Amino acid sequence: MRDTRESRLLLVLLVAIAFALITVDIRGGQESPVDGARQAAAAVFGPVENGVAAAVDPIGNAIGAVRDSGERHNRIAALEKENAELKAELGSDDRNRNRLRELDALLKTAGAGQYGIKGAQVIGIGAAQGFSWTVTIDVGARDGIQRDMTVLNGAGLVGRVTTVGPSTSTVLLANDPDFTVGTRLEKSDELGFATGQGDRPLLVQLLNGKAKVKPGDRLVTFGSAGDRPFVPGVPVGEIVRVDPMGGGLTRNVYVRPYVGFSKLDIVGVVVQAPRSDPRDTVLPQKPKPAPTVTVTVTAKPPADGEQAGEQPQGQAADRPVQDQPQDPQARDEPQDQEQDQARAPQGQARNPNDQEDATP
């Protein structure tokens, strides 16, 4: 319909008629003159409305379900986020406690060896420079770190610094096949060279082929000239296997390192070497052997009225019974003597040793 003057007048007229009908309907109440028209319209358009509602309601319900599902999804996402935050908070508490233990052990090791250290955290694992066993720590040249510095933790030797950046450094771990460190055996001072073997024990080649070693013996770093790359006295590990002597100039032993290279977190870079070799003082204390249980048996003193060695009444003596003589003549001899004495005349004693008179 075109927007003309007639159309506008028609629209105004229809609106006026609608308001007039609404006014008459409201004032008439239940006896409204348009009530019959309303019922007729309901009878005509009611089925149509029900049919349209039946067709439209599933669509509306689907739309409402989609809207509600979005709200439920948002609620679930919020709950999952809250749960993750709680788990992270609990996990961070456990991690903080673990890091405190590692830091405490590191400080004790540094104090025992008089090492000046710079604390660091492992922030990456990888082979950025082509090494197979390396880690990246969060300290670098700005923190005074230089190449070929010893790296340790609370357990012992971790490795040495190979590459230094402004704020990070790369550490070659002691179990890398390209890693070699001079070692010294506890107490006997036997020298050798330890080489990494990945996830297997370190291979230590002792310079003395006749060195007396056994599983359980411990090793520390021997130290380098100018304390680079290794300072002396850092615990390396414990011998777990010894190859038999073959008459060679060297002898191979296998050492389980103290450090767990797969779970490194807090480490220390030795920026100042000790004034003197700490030797074996940094090694952990060996566990004390279990005490030997001693049982003491005390003899019971004899009761009153009993003599030493006398058996109480009612108890059989534990002495062995001597066997009676087995010779029948020996058993019958006392009886024969008694019979002879009975046959002798009164007042005359008969000597059984006397010989009888052979005269008739």
Please characterize this protein's 3D structure.
There is one protein chain. With 360 residues, this protein is α+β, with helices and mostly antiparallel strands. The protein contains three helices and twelve strands, in the order ααββββββββββββα. The protein has helices at residues 5-28, 35-113, 328-343, and strands at residues 116-125, 134-137, 150-152, 157-164, 169-173, 180-185, 191-197, 200-206, 218-221, 235-242, 251-257, 266-272. A hairpin with a 4-residue loop joins strand 3 (150-152) and strand 4 (157-164). The longest helix is centred in the first third of the chain and has 79 residues, at 35-113. The relative contact order is 0.09.
Using brief descriptors, characterize the structure shown.
360 residues; alpha+beta; six-stranded antiparallel barrel; six-stranded antiparallel β-barrel; disordered C terminus
Helix and strand run: HHEEEEEEEEEEEEH
Note the overall shape.
elongated
Sheet with the most strands: spatial strand order: 1-2-5-4-3-12
Oligomer: single chain
Task: Compute the separation of the termini in Å.
Answer: 195 Å
Main β sheet profile: 6 strands, antiparallel, barrel
Could you tell me the number of beta strands? 12
Structural class label = alpha+beta
Rg from Cα? 54 Å
Average per-residue pLDDT, rounded, comes to 77
What's the helix count? 3
